[in-house]
Specification:
globular, 12 strands, two-stranded antiparallel ribbon, 464 residues, binds uridine-5'-diphosphate, alpha/beta, 19 helices
């Protein structure tokens, strides 16, 4: 054989061997994938069956016996039926304990973990509708519903601002046994904030202030209406730290009283709502609101002026939001000017920019007092205090990851980031706030309610 011929043969052999080993490798990869999927599904089923066993023995059976003892002698049913979307969009009838609410009522659902018709973590449970669902809804219904869902976790901590469908899609795209396991872990603390009763009160009275109890979409709708009517509105957010300050700072309290809207910011307000029997519709803060506000402003062709933060941060925030949401930025200015002497020039700059929305980020209570003091001179329709918003959007301070917000621990992340400045605000402030809420509930609520009816229309009924 010539040298050329043997080289050719060697190449052919090499090619044959490589293609065979590639085929073997891709076959092995496929087998490994099938095996790991089957194994993770088996582990998930084992976890589900163990949870179902534990809940059945420790909770379902004792509650069932109690319900039998209470309901049967009174001639009342022990269970109520609810038909929901099951897997693949088929109807599924679930039993709940009648006369109970929240997690206690839904204990019989855990029996469905044995049958495999419900998952422990899955898409949200939705009432069955015989009419054909929209194609996207149809796809969502293909995924098995779960006793725990991303939607239910976010609803518990009142941060499901994106709405049900978007949250379901987020879940479907993230779905994985490890993701489900972490979702189940998040559901345990989130359960502390969940509410059996639905939120009906439009005003949440807390420590003598009237806080607006609305969803994010209500808040955006309210602002759009004010913009259309050119009705100037001062909108402030309050968190537990703000409410603590409102007790000790008379001028801040006065500024809050002068607001057109006060919105509840933070898990502390959700807990206070639970303690006072006024469930919050949503936990709204400026950082979560900004994307919705910008989208609305862009659609209405209205511009925003950003005032506050360290030099450069308002500009960086303006660049980021105009790029992401297509909103027009009328102007941006830092917040470290002489608030006594230079405010007139700043107000002139804001007014000549023709902005419809002014975001003021000096932190509470400085921003609220500044807005109220100068609102007569300010031309923008929406005047909003937004705290450290520009620090987050300019990327200078990282915001807590979503999972920490879902379990109500955003404040822990803020302490970790700025321990020197934040520890007192949260470590001392949070228990103090809860103490004040309880004290107010016990000692002052009844007398304040009387004064409220006499003095209807102001946003504060409790002098500091
Ligand atoms: N700030 C300002 N001017 C001042 C004092 C503070 O612009 O005279 C800014 C500061 O740079 C920060 C924000 O106000 O961006 C306050 O942030 P903080 O995190 O305290 O506000 P929160 O959101 O907690 O109310």
């Amino acid at each position: 054989m010539t040298a050329k011929g043997s080289a050719q043969k060697a190449r052919e052999l090499e090619k044959r061997l490589t293609s065979r080993s590639n085929a073997r490798r891709s076959w092995q990869r496929r087998m490994a994938l099938v095996a790991s999927t089957a194994l993770s599904e088996l582990i998930v089923r084992l976890i589900e069956i163990s949870v179902a066993l534990a809940v059945t023995l420790l909770a379902f059976v004792p509650v069932l016996l109690c319900r039998l003892a209470v309901q049967l002698p009174a001639g009342k049913p022990v269970f109520v039926k609810r038909t929901v979307f099951g897997c693949s969009g088929k109807p599924l009838t679930l039993l709940s304990f009648s006369g109970l609410s929240g997690g206690m009522a839904t204990l019989p659902w855990f029996l469905e973990l044995f049958t495999g018709r419900l998952a422990l973590a899955g898409t949200a449970i939705r009432d069955w509708q015989p009419s054909a669902p929209a194609p996207e809804q149809g796809y969502i219904s293909m995924v098995k519903p779960g006793i725990i869902s991303l939607w239910s976790v976010r609803q518990s901590s009142r941060i499901a601002h994106e709405g049900r469908e978007a949250t379901e899609w987020e879940y479907i795209f993230s779905k994985h046994p490890v993701y489900d396991f972490l979702l189940i872990l998040r559901a345990l603390p989130a359960m502390l904030f969940s509410e059996g009763q639905s939120a009906s009160n439009e005003i949440f009275e807390l420590l003598g202030l009237k806080i607006d109890n609305m969803t994010m979409s209500d808040a955006i709708g309210m602002m759009r209406q004010a913009l259309v009517e050119k009705r100037q509105s001062a909108i402030f957010f309050v968190n537990p730290d703000c409410l603590n300050q409102s007790i000790t700072e008379r001028d801040y309290r006065k500024a809050l009283t002068a607001a057109d809207r006060i919105l509840p910011d933070g898990i502390g307000l959700v807990i206070a709502g639970k303690l006072l029997g006024t469930p919050l519709r949503e936990n709204i803060n400026g950082t979560d609101m900004l994307p919705f506000l910008c989208t609305m402003a862009a659609a209405e062709k209205l511009s925003i002026f950003l005032l506050g933060g360290k030099p450069g941060r308002a500009e960086m925030t303006g660049d980021a939001i105009s790029q992401n949401y297509g909103v027009a930025i009328a102007g941006a200015m830092h917040g470290y000017f002489d608030h006594e002497r230079e405010s007139t020039a700043v107000i002139e700059a804001i007014n000549s920019s023709k902005a419809s929305i002014l975001l003021v980020a000096f932190g509470a209570p400085l921003q609220e007092k500044w807005i109220v003091r100068h609102r007569a001179a300010l031309r923008p329709t929406i005047l909003m205090g937004v705290g450290g918003l520009f620090d987050f959007y300019s990327g200078n301070i990282k915001r807590a990851p979503r999972w920490m917000r879902e379990i109500g621990l955003e404040w822990v992340y803020r302490i970790m980031q700025e321990p020197g400045r934040m520890w007192k605000r949260y470590v001392v402030g949070n228990p103090l706030f809860l103490y004040r809420v309880m004290k107010w509930k016990v000692l002052e609520r009844s007398s304040i309610t009387e004064r409220t009816t006499e003095n209807h229309g102001t946003r504060s009924d409790c002098p500091a």
